[in-house]
Amino acid sequence: PTMAHSKALLVLENFIGGKFVPCSSYIDSYDPSTGDVYCRVPDSGKEEVEAAVKAAKDAFPVWSSKSPLERSQILNKLADLIEHDLEAFAQAESKDQGKTITFARTVDIPRAVHNFRFFASSILHHVTECTEMPTVGCVHYTSRAPVGVAGLISPWNLPLYLLTWKIAPAIACGNTVVAKPSEMTSVTAWMMCKLLEKAGVPAGVVNVVFGTGAKAGEALVCHPDVPLISFTGSTLTAQRITEKSAPHCKRLSLELGGKNPAIIFDDADLSQCIPTTVRSSFANQGEICLCTSRIFVQRGIYSEFLKRFVAEAKKWKTGNPSDPTINVGALISKEHLEKVRNYVKKAQAEGAKILCGEGVDPLSLPPGNQKGYFMLPTVIAEVKDESCCMQEEIFGPVTCVVAFDTEEEVIQRANGVKYGLAATVWSGNVGRVHRVAHRLQSGLVWTNCWLVRDLNLPFGGMKASGIGREGAKDSYEFFTEVKTITIKH
Ligand code: NAD
């Protein structure tokens, strides 16, 4: 709040029908690394959403009738323009979200660029189905068409990365969109809007309304002219979206939270497993839906693993996100930092051991970052499976390590949460890797690696981690309506 007087704040505007339009009220957005307000985000509501949906509806007939090749060329152009400004986007993402500049430069923005290139390419390669019934003289075939105006709602952890993972397939398929990024991380979406015209995206094809979930998000979900909603965020919000969209029977894609296990057998290659599991626990401050937060280690290697894992975790440096040597930046908000810290306190109260990080090691920050929302990578041991730290999504730099004895036991325990997004399995035994992967209740299983993605293949969770999948074919199916046509000859 103090900064409002000293420096001009960045003020964002909604992007509707190809134009930036101011809003009647605004929300403060904080720089998580300093705790200062530095940006004002439109506090959009029904009126702004109405205007955006109208613009998207008006743009639909022309955009949907373009050929996939024409749309593909525009998506590629947009990818080039974002890539050209990669450094500016990375700086903005880091400042807005608190993530390290290194992560923004190497993961967030390159992936946003790749999302457009990937769908620009994949849209050219889909084929529909055809069957024949010679005895009755018929052929059947399917045809796919864009649905209309897609509502896209994304979270704060990987802002441009996840928003473009929705925008790219939606418009590649010929839909027009109204997107609402998280009110806490809106800047890079606004920057992208500045490039749309130059890329050749016609006015109204991509509209962005900024604001809170309760106001702008809900207005989008409830709008009768938005037949499909693609949402990434928390399970709680997904429940609300499901309720609110039920009267309209909307098509929903829900990518939600996780409580992801890593299962480490005694024949695992620890020299690979330990650094990767430290990364899977603490990358992006643990604020990735795929982050590991329950580590099951087979008893024979438990104490060695713990010693080496903690030593490796301690190497991760926490501090000013704009310093390229830093591994852990700031958490998204003061409230979120408090929530994450409270989990550590609860674990302690239950008798668990905090082996490093929060409350154990000193956190020293540069003078300019004293009021930022920082927390050290924290490792908890001797925690019970029933503990909230082992059951609930913490979404911060906190991971729990526990011992197990048998394969059967660890499968039961790994599956013993309400979530089912991603799991990792570490073992040198091929048979075991397959057996365990098949039995885990998890939309994604990585063995002897983490976060290696082929965007062609389905991404998404089971149980409370979501409904639906995204990927080349899955996104195409979600963002198109299929029709079966029968021809008698
Ligand atoms: P959130 O659910 O609070 O918010 C996500 C988005 O929904 C934001 O844009 C928010 O403004 C909006 N929103 C909130 N209430 C709404 C409502 N009533 N109607 C419509 N929109 C509403 O989630 P978050 O805190 O921003 O993100 C963190 C969560 O996202 C974590 O649970 C994480 O696991 C999950 N996540 C999942 C994936 C995945 O692919 N499965 C990826 C990243 C994050």
3D structure, described in words:
By secondary structure, the protein is α/β, with parallel strands linked by helices. It has 2 domains: 10-257 and 465-488, Aldehyde Dehydrogenase, Chain A, domain 1 (3-Layer(aba) Sandwich); 261-447, Aldehyde Dehydrogenase, Chain A, domain 2, CATH 3.40.309.10. 40% of the residues lie in helices and 22% in strands. The strands form 6 sheets. The chain has a 7-stranded mixed beta sheet, sandwiched between helices. A 6-stranded mixed beta sheet has the order 10-9-8-11-12-22, sandwiched between helices. The chain is globular and about 70 Å long. The N and C termini lie far apart (73 Å). The chain binds nicotinamide-adenine-dinucleotide. Nicotinamide-adenine-dinucleotide is lined by residues 153-157, 162, 180, 182-183, 212-214, 217-218, 221, 232-234, 237, 240-241, 255-258, 289, 393, 395, 421, 461, 466.
Task: Considering the chains and any ligands shown, give keywords for the structure.
single chain, 489 residues, alpha/beta, Aldehyde Dehydrogenase, Chain A, domain 1, Aldehyde Dehydrogenase, Chain A, domain 2, 2 domains, seven-stranded mixed β-sheet, 16 helices, disordered N terminus, binds nicotinamide-adenine-dinucleotide
Profile the largest sheet: 7 strands, mixed
User: From the structure provided, what is the oligomeric state, counting identical versus distinct chains?
Assistant: single chain
Q: What is the CATH superfamily classification of the largest domain? A: Aldehyde Dehydrogenase, Chain A, domain 1
Total strand segments: 23
Rg on CA atoms, Å: 23 Å
Q: Using the coordinates above, name the CATH class of the largest domain.
A: Alpha Beta
**What is the terminal-to-terminal distance?**
73 Å
**Poorly predicted sequence stretches spanning 5 or more consecutive residues:** 1-5
Here the CATH topology of the largest domain equals: Aldehyde Dehydrogenase, Chain A, domain 1
Bound molecules: nicotinamide-adenine-dinucleotide
Question: What structural category characterises the helix and strand content?
Answer: alpha/beta
Strand order of the largest sheet: 15-16-17-14-13-19-20
Taken from the alpha-carbon principal axes, the silhouette is globular
Provide the domain count: 2
User: Kindly state the mean pLDDT as a whole number?
Assistant: 97
In the CATH hierarchy, the architecture of the largest domain is 3-Layer(aba) Sandwich
Summed up, the helix count is 16
Helical fraction: 40-55%
Binned strand content: 15-25%
